[in-house]
Design brief:
Elements (H helix, E strand, L loop, with lengths): L12 H25 L18 H11 L9 H18 L2 H15 L1 H8 L10 H12 L4 H19 L2 H7 L10
Helix pairs in contact: 1-4, 2-3, 3-7
Organism: Aquipseudomonas ullengensis
Protein name: Twin-arginine translocation pathway signal protein
InterPro entries: TAT_signal
């Protein structure tokens, strides 16, 4: 995957207000549209505490791209499921406000009306290729809008934290695990 580091942006007060207003408008529009159309459900998918059925196609397309090179291809299916479970546990433990923001981000990425213009992926996430997802990530990483760059960073961090918290990931990066203390 390409370099995911972010340069420290210098925002003026005016730029910050513009980004904030734009982000608020996008998230509010997406939230209202999702609520009215029934696309956004507060009900978790079967087997999950927080993640909704509408979140899973996007995350299943994103996870293998983010973890490419860190996981053997034959282990990717199990890795995706373990990462989804780890992400679900993490989101279940965050504040209600942070959970709401994360779900709004997932709603924006899941609804066709906002997904196409913001990501460049006009079809369903189930049909998105690796290259489509990479293009979306690069688009957000290099966006002139700070809100999209922050979304990019948040998505990468959520996936990476959920995977690297799993003991199965530790061998790849040389981490022997937490110290074992004898009592």
């Amino acid at each position: 995957m390409s370099d995911t580091s972010l340069a420290s942006p210098q925002l003026s007060r005016r730029s910050l207000l513009k980004v904030g207003l734009f982000g608020t408008a996008v998230l509010a529009t997406a939230g209202v549209t999702a609520s009215l159309s029934g696309c956004s459900s507060a009900t978790p998918a079967s087997g999950y505490a927080v993640l909704r059925l509408s979140d899973l196609p996007f995350l299943r397309a994103l996870i293998p791209v983010v973890l490419e090179g860190a996981v053997p291809a034959d282990a990717m299916a199990a890795t995706i499921e373990a990462t989804l479970k780890g992400m679900d546990r993490s989101l279940h433990a965050v504040s209600p406000e942070l959970l709401k923001l994360t779900q709004q981000l997932f709603d924006v990425l899941g609804m066709a009306v906002t997904r196409g213009p913001l990501t460049g992926i006009w079809g369903a996430w189930d049909n998105a290729s690796r290259e489509d997802v990479l293009h979306f990530l690069e688009r957000w990483q290099n966006s002139s809008l700070n809100l999209l760059r922050m979304g990019h960073t948040s998505l990468l961090q959520m996936v990476q934290m959920a995977w690297y918290a799993q003991p199965a990931s530790w061998g790849h990066c040389g981490y022997p695990g937490p110290p074992q203390y004898a009592l």
